[in-house]
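Example record

One chain of 307 residues, shown exactly as stored in the release files.
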Amino acid sequence: MYQHLLVVLEPESTEQKALSRALHIASLQPTRLTLFISIYDFAYEMTTMLSGEEREQMRHSLIEDRIQWMKDLLEDYETDEQVITLEVVWHHRPFEAIIRFALKNDVDLIVKGTHKHDTLHSVIFTPTDWSLLRKSACPVLLVKDHGWPEHGQVLAAVHAASDSDTHQALNKRIIEAAHYMSNKLNSSLHLVNCHPGAPTSIAVEIPEFDSRHYQTSVREFHQKALTAASQAVDRDYAGLHIREGMPEDEIPALAKEIDAELVVLGTIGRTGISAALLGNTAEHVIEQLNCDLLAVKPPGFTSPLAD
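Predicted structure tokens for this chain:
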């Protein structure tokens, strides 16, 4: 499924989590890796004392320095059996450089590490992370510090009760991606579907409203929908989980309970005003997770950066 991995390196970081994770994947299947860095220094563009040719030479020198850094970095890893290429581009928007390269070079998976805040002990997600989640057509694996042990747990989060064809197709893609990774990692596969509880205002406004019966009916409905979603993809599951509550609360809580090494979910990829107002479930969930997240798009999604 993932034959070409684009690995986004962090030159300012001492720990290359994305590279370690990508090499782990490459050890499990035939895969080629492209190690990628996007660099840009506005000062070089504004140096009027230099000619265009001289500025180009300075950019070239910086790129060559980064390529040599990547070569030196690889000496600390076991890469003899891996097919690895190095790519450094000059671009002022890292996320755009990453996505454009992925589109032009048949990348199957973008792998990027996350940043941990030194004092708050929490993960900080950069604008590049959010832009990749929203705009990348290929799956994005955001790597945290949680290990990938064998016989672990992989959790796929679906929206099973939706009657939208887009959501149903996305559910299938999520389950297939999660099964693929759980199979490669020799891990157990879980599915989770979240649903809201009964609005408390109804019980106040309508005294005869039976909230317990309502919650039971809603749970049964979602249980049937989750079972149907699981049967649409013929796989073995360690658990089918129905959780009452918001996905951004319940998915991370369940991931922690089962000690998941990877959570797989879908992101529709809203942009502009709707994204600013509504956000994406993936973006809310990932901030609470203590493990890696694999975000996939629905079939037919076109990146806004596609030419």
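Notes: The domain at 149-307 is CATH 3.40.50.12370 (Rossmann fold).
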